[in-house]
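Why this split exists: single-chain examples teach little about how molecules sit against one another. For that reason, every record in the complexes split bundles all components of an assembly together and asks for one structure covering all of them. Below is a record exactly as it appears in the raw files.
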Amino acid sequence: MPESSAELLLWTTLRTVEGQTLGRYQTQAPDLLTPAKSQAVQAITALGQGALVETSLAEAVPALLDAAEGQGAEEDALWIQGLLLEHLGITLYTALGQGQRLSPEGTLAAAQGAQASEDVAALATAALRARYPEPKARFQAFIRHTRPVFARLDTLGEAIDDSFAEPMDLCFADLMGDFVADLLPRCTEELGFERRKVMMHLSAAMMG
Amino acid sequence: MDWVTRCLRLRFFDRDADFVALTQRVNVQGLDCVGGTLMNIASSLDQIGLSGADSAGAMMDGYAELLEGVGIAPRSATQNVVAMFMPLLRTYRQRDAEVAHA
């Protein structure tokens, strides 16, 4: 079980986000609901039985989830949950698994989470390539669907720094660096986007 | 730039960590300066069809390319540059929000 209040808060946050993700997959993109993803979320749920109230995450997380709702269509689940949030998951679970940040159960759940997110992101990418065969239309869909979530990331980042920078040495700027560094090759090599345009889209969304 | 890039490749051959540490120190100061300038001229940029956000994104990409040109691995280059830019993006967003509420 979590060995610190920070770890409990962390898993509670992830339980909240992954709960919405699972719901989206169930109703909009069942192919992304892999057995490994279900098992990873079960492990996270077991660890995250706290509450977000009275933390800076109490506003930031619902705001992110609100942005991640999209229009309720399959393409929203593919872009927002399947590509974007799973890549955030890869970044976060991988960072958490390094050093001695977590309990033994937490370290195992982080490893499960990272692998499951990697697999789902690959499935989502393949589905997006098939759904949008023309790269220009694909890029337009990417910026349309992902902008609201990118726009919320910095507010979430402030909350992450407030809650986890000291107890867990987790810094949002570094996490974003890792996130973009991992997302970019998927965007350029697999989805056919221009790197500069992805960077400009990210900065435009985050700067408002 | 080509000459400086070649010079840096030679000077920091096989010393990636030292070069990244240098860029982090230098670029943080540089970004404070450039970022402040960007914000001060943002309204002028808007009038000619450029945005501070687009400029920041292009700068991130350009800086990452520069690091790659000196031999830093692409993933490490991107990670370092994006991490350095995050405070600038936050400051710009917060300032915009203050102006909007004023």
